[in-house]
Structures are given as C-alpha cells and as structure tokens.
Design a protein that fits this description.
The complex is a heterodimer of chains A (301) and B (270).
Chain A (H helix, E strand, L loop, with lengths): L2 H9 L5 H5 L3 E5 L3 H4 L1 H32 L11 H13 L2 H33 L1 H15 L7 H8 L4 H25 L2 H9 L4 H38 L5 H5 L8 H29 L13
Helix pairs in contact in A: 5-13, 6-7, 6-9, 6-11, 8-9, 9-11, 11-13
Chain B lengths: L18 E12 L5 E12 L3 E5 L6 H8 L7 E8 L6 E4 L11 H11 L4 H14 L15 H14 L4 E5 L7 H18 L2 E5 L3 H7 L2 E5 L6 E6 L14 H22 L1
Helix pairs in contact in B: 2-3, 2-4, 3-4, 6-7
Classes of the chains: A mainly alpha (301), B alpha/beta (270).
Chain lengths: 301, 270
C-alpha cells in the first residue's frame, strides 16, 4: 500500500449527487520552510532580530542627525546627536558627569538598601503576626497611594537641605513596593507547601529557611525591579528641586540656561543607569533563584 | 506495513469507505538540526464517518499527529491531506485543557465561532440552545467558565466544536483531566452524540477502554520515534451501548492491545 495509490483513490471525483453541488477540495498539510530548514530559520530569525534591534535605533539616530544638519528640525530643542556626544565628552573630561552620576548612584544605593531591608522585615512581620497585620496593613495601604515626591517639602522642613531627605525618600519609595511583594509572596504560596512542611516536622527557623523565604524570592525580585525604577525616579525628582549635584540637578537647570545638549546627556545617562541597575538585579535574581519561572519567555522556539 | 498485526480482513463497521484524512510518510523532528525524532514515517487513512482512536505511550507523537490534521503543526517530511466537501467547517478541535475563554459565558463561548463565521443571530441562537440542551448546559448558559466543573467545561468545549458542524472532529485527550466517574459519563455522552451524526473523528487518548468503547478503529503507536505498530478494527456493532465494557470480548481486545502497548510504554520510560 503506497501513499500515492491512496492519494489517487481520493482525488478521483466521486459520483454521489451530494458532492456534485458542493465543491470538494483538498487541504494539503506539508512541510513549510520552518520544517525543511529549521537551522536556517533560526539563523535568519536571529540575524533579523539582531540587525533590526541595532539597526532601528541607529537609523533613528542617523535620521535625527541628518534632520538637524539640514535644519528640518529646530536644533535649539533637538540638537544633533553628534553635538550631544561632544557635550557628553566635555562633561566627562571636566569630571562633572562622573561626579553627578556618583552623587545620584550613591543616594540610590543607600536608600534602596535601607528600603529593601525595611520592606522585607515589615512584609515578613505582617505575614507572621495577625496583630501586626491588623494594626499596620490598613495604614500602610493608605500611605501607599501618597506620591512619595509629595512629602519632599515635609522632609526638607524636618531634615533641612542636603542628602538625607533624598535618601529617606528613596528608602520610602522602595519600602512600599517591597513589603507588598513580600507579603503577597508569602500569602500566595500554595498551602500544600506549608502542609508538606508541617507533615515532615519542618518548623520554626527551618521552615523559614527552606520553605517560606525561597518561596517569596520570585515575587521579591519582581518587586525589586519595580522598586529600582521608583528609586531612580525619586532620585532625579528630588535633585530637580533640591541639592547641588546629581543627574537630576544637571538636567533641571539646562532648560533655563538653554543647554539642551546637556539635558539630553542627563536623560541618556539616567536611562543607562536604570538599565544597568535593572540588569544587575536580574542577574542576582537568576543566581539566587535559578528555579523561578522566567519572566518574559520571548524569542523562544 | 506488512508487520502490522491488524485485523483489516474484518468487514468495515462504518458505511462509507472514502478517505477523509490521508496521512502519508509523515515524519516530524524537533530541534535545530532535527535531532529529536518524534514521528517516523506515519501512513494512515481515516475514512469518512469513521471514529479512529490513537493510543500510545506518552511522548509518542500522537498529539503531534492530531495537531497536524488541525494545521496547528506541520510535518518535517511527508504530508497530510484533508478532503474538504466544502459544505461546512472543515475541522474543529476539543482540547484537553478545554481552551474555552474565561471572559465569555457558556453561551457566548459556544456561539463565538458561529458569530465569526457570519451565521445570522436567530439561527445561531437556536443552534446553540439546542446544543446546550443536548449537553445539559442550559442551566449554565449565562455562567462564566470559572464557575464550571471540569466536566461542564469540557461539555462547553465539545458543544463549541459541534456547533460549527465540522466535517472532522479532532479530540486531544479530552477526558484526561476529569475524574474517573465524570470521564465515564462524558464517554457515554460522546458515544451517543456521535452515533447521531457519525462525523469523522480522530480521538487521542491514553485509555484503551475509552478507545475501544468509542472507536471504530484503535491505532496503536510505538514509543518515540512514533510509528504505527497496530491498527485494530473494533468488532462491536453500532449503535453501541456502554454496557459492552462488561463483555469478555471487550476485555480480551483490551488485553490484546495492552500487551502490544506495554512493551512500548516500558521502552518510553527509558
């Protein structure tokens, strides 16, 4: 019984009157290019992803450069990328940029670390004790909605000018994201884990080390990534209005001094800072919880 | 195909004998270099109006084969031919995990394909109502899937597939996630539903009992790389009643198929 014989039997028109009215056709399901040349498809896909991923921003930059040179756009607001690069070079040379980055980064790292510790402790305490939970959760949830920058004037009033209000504000911003993640992580853990722990007598500190804390890690790292964005935002926002160094401080007066190049340098540097910090948190997360489900599983296949 | 232990000499239990699905020389491999061979040379003809069950150990590629018939997967070599009579929707599928939309009520879920196919409102409502009555869903018409048990959810999935009156109904382990009693109930419902209109069905399952109860043929596949190692014609006449499960003939056939499959299941463990 060969396959061609079977096919011939089928393609022969049938004589039933039923079929005469409706049109009989054949659907063929055959290998596509993906199936005949899977390796080539993967290669082409990767090449396309790489070339478009790099090519698109490069193309936009080139377009921007040309538009600026040809005066199609107002270079007072959109200076040519080459000009911005030159400005960045000068800012690095004078040491200004490094000093600014360090000022912002320092505040972010200190505030972030403090907020993280406070958030993990609070979230754990809320999960651990119903009394703490009933006492604090409604209050914390209500405070959660206050935009952190709104209390900056209060902090300035209490602590005066300087670094401290900035660090406290970053800490608060991080704290509120983290305690929620930790509490949710503990709450959302499937009850069977706790049940298994109980059955096998895994209690007290062992339960925390082996069951509960590992369970919250995926949630915690998601919270930590969100908190990073928050902390950069608060740092820049605080520096806009207060202080004498930092990336925000460099971006803000540029509009009144009419130094758009400097403004763009600041924006790009902040973007890179956020990107680098996020990458670090992601890398630590992958190291600490390699078993966690991967977030975006794009580009698979 | 001479190595097949089939009993094709027996007269066919179904009326028509025209090929509806013709699988010839299908191979499927995965991986960039095709290093994992899932299916290795499948030839199979499913005739019009025939209920064919595919059984085999986990990972033998039976679902892959089924999904090719649904144009969800494509072969690495060979081809699958579907004969379309042009009268109704060609193929519908019932998935193991139901795949009904949580944001639509039971009625809207069943109605959706009819709506997008452009059927007039009155006609589709009548059809959906009839199906819901037939499948015992009418009291849940306006419920959301989250409120349904697994058995009810799968009934919705079956009703949705039947609503388009497909020429071919593909079922991918539809009852595997249900408890044993619910599985039995739905098997019996499907048996009587199918015997009303006898459309072409390809049914993938792990359960030999299910395959013998429902199928005109039970096609047995080997462990990976999957090939067809046997093609049994189920001798029970139609219309069948679920009581045949208790007959010695049924038990013998199940035992005979299991002895072929057992080797493959053990092989697939390694």
């Amino acid at each position: 019984m060969t396959s061609s014989a079977k096919v011939a039997a089928v393609t022969a028109p049938s004589a039933t009157p039923d079929d005469a009215a409706a049109k009989v056709s054949e659907i063929l399901i055959r290998p596509r290019r993906q199936e005949t040349d899977p390796e080539g498809m993967v290669r082409r896909r990767r090449a396309l992803s790489l070339s478009l991923g790099i090519g698109t921003p490069v193309l936009l930059l080139v377009l921007w450069q040309i538009s600026a040179q040809q005066s199609w756009i107002d270079t007072r607001f959109f200076p040519a990328p080459a000009m911005i690069l030159t400005e960045a070079g000068e800012m690095v040379e004078s040491g200004m940029l490094v000093k600014d980055v360090w000022a912002s980064l320092k505040a972010i790292l200190v505030g972030y670390a403090l907020g993280l510790v406070a958030g993990v402790l609070t979230g754990t305490a809320l999960a651990l004790s119903t009394v703490v939970r009933f006492a604090l959760e409604p209050l914390l949830s209500a405070l959660y909605t206050i935009p952190k920058l709104a209390i900056l004037p209060l902090l300035l009033l209490i602590f005066g000018l300087g670094e401290l209000p900035k660090i406290i504000l970053i800490m608060l911003g991080v704290f509120f994201v983290i305690w929620v993640s930790v509490l949710e992580g503990i709450e959302d853990a499937p009850p069977t884990y706790a049940e298994a722990a109980q059955i096998f007598g895994i209690n007290g500190i062992n339960r925390w080390v082996h069951v509960i804390l590992p369970g919250i890690l995926p949630n915690l790292f998601t919270g930590m990534r969100i908190a990073l964005g928050t902390s950069v935002l608060i740092a820049v926002g605080t520096e806009f209005v207060n202080g004498d160094e930092g990336i925000g401080y460099r971006i803000w007066p540029s509009w009144s001094l009419f130094q758009p190049e400097r403004m763009y340098v600041g924006i790009v540097v902040v973007a890179f800072m956020g990107f680098a910090l996020t990458w670090i948190v992601k890398a630590i997360g992958a190291l600490v919880a390699p078993w966690a489900p991967r977030q975006a599983r794009r580009h698979s296949e | 195909m001479t190595q097949l232990t089939n009993s094709s000499a027996a007269p066919l239990a179904y009326p028509a004998s025209r090929g509806k699905i013709i699988v010839s020389g299908v191979r499927k491999s995965y991986g960039r270099r095709g290093e994992v061979l899932a299916l290795n040379g499948i030839d199979l003809v499913v005739h019009e109006g025939e209920f064919v069950c595919l059984v085999g150990p986990s990972g033998c590629g039976k679902s892959t084969l089924l999904r090719m018939m649904a144009r969800l997967h494509y072969p690495t070599a060979g081809e699958v031919r579907l004969v379309d009579n042009g009268r109704t929707h060609l193929a519908a599928m019932v998935f193991q995990n139901y795949s009904i939309f949580p944001w639509k009520t039971v009625r809207k879920n069943i109605e959706l394909p009819l709506r997008t196919l452009g059927m007039p409102r009155a006609e589709r409502e009548a059809r959906v109502t009839r199906l819901m009555e037939r499948l015992g869903l009418i009291d849940f018409a306006d419920a959301y899937p989250a409120a349904l048990s697994g058995g009810m959810a799968q009934r919705v999935s079956i009703a949705r597939a039947l609503a388009v009156e497909p020429q071919i109904l593909l079922m991918d382990e539809p009852f595997a996630a249900l408890d044993a009693q619910m599985r039995r109930v739905l098997q019996e419902e499907l048996l009587s539903l199918w015997q009303e209109d006898r459309r072409t069905v390809v049914f993938v399952t792990h359960s030999l009992e299910e395959a013998i109860l429902l199928g005109d043929r039970v096609v047995v596949m080997s462990a990976r790389p999957g090939v067809i190692i046997a093609d049994h014609t189920v001798p029970f006449e139609r219309p069948r009643r679920p009581e045949i499960r208790g007959t010695s003939e049924f038990a013998e056939l199940e035992q005979r198929i299991w002895s072929q499959m057992r080797v493959e299941v053990e092989r697939s463990e390694q």
